[in-house]
Write a structure and sequence with these properties.
By secondary structure, the chain is α/β, with parallel strands linked by helices. 32% of the residues lie in helices and 23% in strands. The strands form two sheets. It has an eight-stranded mixed sheet, with helices on both faces. A four-stranded antiparallel sheet has the order 2-1-4-5, with helices on one face. α3 packs across α4. The chain starts with a strand and ends in a 6-residue tail after the last strand. The protein binds iron/sulfur cluster.
């Protein structure tokens, strides 16, 4: 197993009280596999990814516990210096909005070359050659021209391709992609997903694909973890999630995906909203929104049940 997250809890301080953002998350990521983490905003998916990267703001954390084992080392226990080496070399991350990661004042080529100079001690000429090679690898035409451009001169899709190229420059074992296509229009989104799929196969990099959109997942993920209010409520192979969703929340997410055969006024939405993370009770966190809720659902958070490798936390399967 490349990455094993065990019982991860992340709580933040706030003026309203303790925000329980991640409440005992278990996720396993195998080598060479794309695993999606799917959830609405506030589900804890981005906090989980920032915890893997060691990028959470220390001053705002009330508690962080559990294990994040990467290649046999618990990242939560590593000193910052060792973590910094892993981050950028072995684990890379791309975000929704590339402009937050690219410096608008510096040419794309300069920023790409810096990665090679810093991580691999390359001289400027070799770093430029490697950068152009990477730009070509992410299927951008006229690579030299793009190398000499400023980020604002490129389209959103091209900027995201550049971010992917930079993230893959160090040939990481794990790439964390946090909503990487959300800001792109549908056609460009498909192209970027297809590119990520191809690159994963070429480089054998494992990918954690974080998204609120289960529809996107079907194009890219081998395995799916559904997160709700800081807990994984269902995890299984992507084909099993789509063919036979077990948790009422996952079923709701699937029903809510628009498709060509549905009229707009028939679009389903899950009633209610996510519970307040300051006020989470020891019960199924979905019970106020669930049409199948029973008395037992309010007695404690349901234990995970394993049905032939398809795992679900719901009293319907006790
Ligand atoms: Fe619904 Fe109960 Fe299952 Fe929660 S445990 S999803 S409330 S049936």
């Amino acid at each position: 197993m490349l990455l094993e997250i065990k019982n991860l809890e992340v709580f933040f301080k706030s003026s309203q009280g303790v925000v329980k953002a991640v409440n005992g998350v278990d996720i396993n990521i195998r080598e060479g596999v794309t695993s999606a983490i799917v959830g609405e905003s506030g589900s804890g998916k981005s906090v989980t990814s920032l915890a893997i990267m060691g990028l959470l703001e220390d001053s705002s954390i009330e508690k962080i516990s559990g294990e994040i084992n990467f290649d046999g080392k618990n990242l939560l226990e590593l000193p910052e210096e060792e973590l910094r080496k892993i981050r950028g070399n072995e684990i890379s991350m791309i975000f929704q909005e590339p402009m937050t990661s690219l410096n608008p004042a510096l040419k794309v080529g300069y920023q790409m070359s810096e990665v090679f100079i810093e991580h691999f001690n390359m001289d400027k000429k070799t770093a430029k050659e490697k950068s152009i090679e990477m730009i070509e690898k992410v299927e951008i035409q006229r690579a030299e021209e793009v190398y000499n451009s400023y980020p604002h001169e490129l389209s959103g899709g091209m900027r995201q391709r550049i971010m992917i190229a930079m993230a893959l420059s160090s040939n990481p074992k794990l790439l964390i992609a946090d909503e990487p296509t959300t800001a792109l229009d549908v056609t460009i989104q498909k192209e970027v997903l297809e590119l990520m799929r191809k690159l994963k196969e070429d480089l054998n990099t494992s990918i954690i694909f974080i998204t609120h959109d289960l529809a996107v997942v079907s194009d890219i993920a081998d395995y799916v973890n559904v997160l709700y209010a800081g807990k994984v409520v269902e995890r299984a192979k992507a084909e099993d999630i789509f063919a036979n969703p077990l948790h009422p929340y996952t079923r709701g997410l699937l029903r809510a995906i628009p498709n060509a055969h549905k009229k707009v006024d028939e679009l389903y939405t899950i009633r209610g909203s996510v519970p307040n993370p300051v006020d989470l009770k020891n019960e199924c966190h979905f019970c106020d929104r669930c049409d199948e809720a029973m008395d037992i659902c309010r007695t404690a958070f349901p234990e995970e049940v394993d049905i032939d490798g398809h795992k679900v936390s719901c009293y319907l399967y006790r």
